[in-house]
Amino acid sequence: MLKINIISIFPEYLKPLELSLLGKAQEKGLIEINIHDLRKHTDDVHHSVDDTPYGGGAGMVMSPQPWGLAIDEVSESSEHFDLIVLTPAGKKFDQKMAKNFASKNNLIFACGRYEGIDARVSQYYASKSNFTVHEVSIGDYVLGGGEVATMVIVEATARLIPGVLGNPDSLKEESHTLTNKDGSLVEYPSYTKPANWRGLDVPAILLSGNHGEIEKWRIKEAERRTQALTEE
Ligand code: 6GU
């Protein structure tokens, strides 16, 4: 079973992970998600988790001590852990990374805020033989913190675990996994009833019953959409 531990100063921010698909996956015992408050690991009266940057500059940096205590607490066993540090300076998240994470047993998400987490936290855990550290970004824009990025990654990862999706066939044909000789394609357009809606017809080929021709049309449409995304 995949065990996911998430450390954040805003644990309530991650509540949506209890809903819908991921909530059901937890009820079914397919995944386990535990959310932890970083401030539990502070000892000063103000429960501070950040400080000014060495070398000067704007903003605040998250202190290494609470992070070390929080990560140690969720990794007490002798198992292997994949520590995912959310940062806009990380490697771009994609479907391939989701598949890799879905094959793991223990994921720890460190949700940074402010100007990020003291760099020694990644350095320290990367040096431990039972840890792999991944610094990950979800795209080329800046968020207020890693919480939303964590939800994106957890959702994309969990749905790849056998049994999480109601219909396992959904995994076979979808965007970014439907491939031709040139690599990966986005999904073809989908239609359902009614056959005419506000004067717009469903493409006639889809009503033809000719599965060979339908498959060819879908591949052509997926290629057209993929091409359109790489233009402009
Ligand atoms: Cl992982 N964190 C933050 N703060 N901003 C981001 C991001 C992560 N990914 C894209 N932008």
From TrEMBL:
Q: Which UniProt keywords apply?
A: Cytoplasm, Methyltransferase, S-adenosyl-L-methionine, Transferase, tRNA processing
Catalysed reaction(s) here are: guanosine(37) in tRNA + S-adenosyl-L-methionine = N(1)-methylguanosine(37) in tRNA + S-adenosyl-L-homocysteine + H(+)
> Is S-adenosyl-L-methionine set as a keyword in this record?
yes
Q: Which InterPro entries match?
A: Alpha/beta_knot_MTases, tRNA_m1G_MeTrfase_C_sf, tRNA_m1G_MeTrfase_TrmD, tRNA_m1G_MTases_N, tRNA_MeTrfase_TRMD/TRM10
Q: What class of enzyme is it?
A: transferase
* Cellular localisation: Cytoplasm
| Residues of the tRNA methyltransferase TRMD/TRM10-type domain | 2-228
The EC designation for this entry is 2.1.1.228
Query: Which Gene Ontology MF annotations are present?
Result: tRNA (guanine(37)-N1)-methyltransferase activity
Q: Which GO terms describe its cellular component?
A: cytosol
What biological-process GO terms show up in the record?
A: tRNA N1-guanine methylation
The record's annotation in HAMAP family points to: TrmD
| Family (UniProt) | Belongs to the RNA methyltransferase TrmD family.
Q: Report the function annotation for this chain.
A: Specifically methylates guanosine-37 in various tRNAs.
Q: How does it assemble?
A: Homodimer.
The cross-references to PANTHER family, in alphabetical order and at most eight, read: TRNA (GUANINE-N(1)-)-METHYLTRANSFERASE (PTHR46417)
Q: What is this protein called?
A: tRNA (guanine-N(1)-)-methyltransferase
Provide the species name: freshwater metagenome
